[in-house]
Structures are given as structure tokens and as C-alpha cells.
Amino acid sequence: MKKFPANFTWGTATSSYQIEGAWNEDGKGWSIWDAFAHTKGKTANNETGDIACDHYHRFKDDVKLMADLGIKAYRFSISWPRVMPTGRDTVNEKGLQFYSELVDELLKYNIEPWVTLYHWDLPLALQMEYDGWLGEQISDFFEAYTAVCFAKLGDRVKNWITLNEPWVVAILGYGQGVMAPGRISNSEPYLAAHQLLLAHGKAVKRYRTEFQPKQKGRIGITNNGDWREPYSDSVEDKAAAQRALEFFLGWFADPVYLGDYPAVMKERVKERLPVFSSEEKVLLKGSSDFFGLNHYTTMLAQESGGNNKEQNVYGNGGISEDQDVILHVDPTWDKTDLNWAIVPWGCRKLLEWINDRYQQPDIIITENGCASDVGVVNGEVDDQKRLNFYRAYLSEAHAAIENGVKLTGYFAWSFMDNFEWALGYSMRFGITHVDYKTLKRIPKTSAYWFKETISKNGF
Asked: Per the confidence metrics, is the pTM higher than 0.85?
């Protein structure tokens, strides 16, 4: 049996818009995802998160299920418009109280709460009135919102994540338009990313100055990152793979750990890439107590030589015309139902790349999982593909630890099937299963892999 360190954090994760429902109840304001999903043609089958998993009303049952499964930590996100309906000034006490009661319920079962402050559901009012993540005031609004959360929950919450996957917000929300707010541009992603990073930095400074000394918690940021393996042994393809990683993960991690954008981005993006002031560099450098990583897949990176049309097929890793990288998938690799390649060794290589580039930070895999839809028979799911996925990725994560990587936690995505953004309810990532037509929990599922393996600190 492969054993992880005794103090290793094991958990599962969700996000507010994907599970809560109650989209217009108890004073909650509209989010950009409320507006996006209610716009015909933007999501699969025009599905929305209006009800989703009804977690807002059923959170006590959900937490009890976590406890029954042996889950030790739970990462969830706070809906900004549920706490502040217009994104600023006015606090909705009912919305804030919901999260306070959720934290209390988790602690009742000795489940450690990990709170993400932003998982893509920006208050619609800020998008309409201040241009969303393109506006210069958005980072100040975010700082003020996070302070409300710190003040209310920080006596019990000791692990905070400012932003979830800002790359997705920038590229898919402001570049390719497939996520809210649905904008298409080759320059706005860089502007949005810049404001996202400043928002992170200001929130961290506020926490460390005003709350951390007394509350004794820690705070970080979670970035998504997929491994980029050179397509061949050529110097050009090796350089392309490195460049792709810097445009993808380095875009957001370099400012936080090294104080500025990667040099290759400055060289290629030129005037479209905003410039940090000296004060902003100081604000950002060292602004994460841990390295949050969402990791799912691997692709092969090839030098495009200016012919990067194929890159647009995948749309994953940055703006293609700036990278000059073509991405491929080895046809022999198995794939999830989302058509993402299953490449466990890519996880280990990415962990080692982060370890080397950013001087051995504490790394927490805040998401990793597999979209796999299998039938339910007699209330059970014979979910071998997902079981094999987790075993393989955890084996490589364990190997990374043995190679000196300071990996200290792992969160499976997701605790239960949910609204998968523009894909609606067509993808099943959950380790527990939800029948969306009846919102009925199926009592015994493949989630028992968690109880029988991870919760025992080995597999």
C-alpha cells in the first residue's frame, strides 16, 4: 500500500453556482452566470443553475453524506452576489448567514472547510455598471467583499482561496466567449487577467494585515494547469512546450511567486500585456501561502512555425496566435467523457515543474477528477473508469512526493454531479450521483472509493 503523509489533507470540492440553486431567493442578486445561462443558446439544452443540486436547501443532508463517506475536508465557494447582491456596499445578511451555518455544519462533523471566494459568478451589477473584470475598480470591490467574508467566517475558516482558475475567466470568458460574460477578444483576456491578479493581491494584503494575525489562517490562489509534453525531442518542440506552460500556468503563477509576467509573454504579447507598477509587483510577489492547483489532463505541444490553426480546435492554454504552439492528443491515450486525455504521468511532471520553478512551494491539488457517466443499477454505480483514474493519478502524485515535491493535499472534483457550466448537466464529474429530474440522492455509489481508500491515507 502506498501511504501519504499522516497530515495530508484529503477532501472534495464544489462551487456555488454549480450546486446551490436558490438563484433568486433570500435577497441574492443576479450573477453573470444567471444572465448567461438564461440567454437562449448559451448552455447545453438551455439548462441553468436555478436549482442545480438544491444545496442551498439541502446542505445539512449533503454534509451528513460527506461525513458518512469519511471526507475530511470540503472546498466550497461563496457566491459573491448572494453575500452582496450588487457586488458592493450592501451586505445580504441572509446570504452570509447561509455560509456561516454551512461552516458550522461542517465543523460539527469535523470536516475542515476550505473556502474559495470567487468561482466565476461575478455579480451582474458589476459587469453592467463597471465593465466586470475589465474595470479598474473591480479589484477594490473584490477586496471589500472578501473582508466581509473574513470578518464573518474567519474565526472558523482557516483556509482561504481568493480566485478559482482565473485563466478560465480570462480566456473562456473574455477571449473565446464560451463562458460568462461571453466576450470574444484577443486583448481583453490580458486586461481581465491583470485585474484578477490585482484583486487577489489586494484581498491577500487585507487578510494578512487585518485578519490573519488574530484568526491564524492562511490564504492562497488556485490556478488550473495541464501538462504540456514536447511533441518530439526537437529543440523547437521542447521550447514550445515550455512556452505553452508559461502562457498557461506561468501567466498567473509567475506574478504571485516571481513578481512579474513571464518574459516570453512580454516579448510576444507586447503592448496588449498590461504592466505592473513597482508597487503592484510588491503586492503580488509572495501573496500565496500555498500553491493551489487544479489539474485534469495533458497535451503534446509542437512548434507551429506560424501555422497554428489547429490550436484553435483545442483552445486550451492561452491565445494561440501569441504562443505559436499547436496542441495534440496522442490517439492511444484513453479519454474521459469530456474528451480530456487521461495521462497520469503528466500530473507528476507538472508537480515537479511547479516545484522547480517556484522554489518548492507547498502544493495542494484543489481539483482533480474524471467525467464519466455510467448507469445506475440497483442504486449502485460500477464506476471502474473513475476508480482507475483516481488510482493512477494518486500514484503519480505519490511519486512526486517521493521525488521531493511538497504536495500536502488533494481534493477530488467533484463531491456530487452538478451543473457543468456551458455543458449543462451532460457531464458527470461527481463522486456521488444526483438524479437531476428528482433531485434524489442515490445512497451507495462509487463515492465509497473515498471511504475505503483516501480516508485511510493510502490506496
From this structure: yes
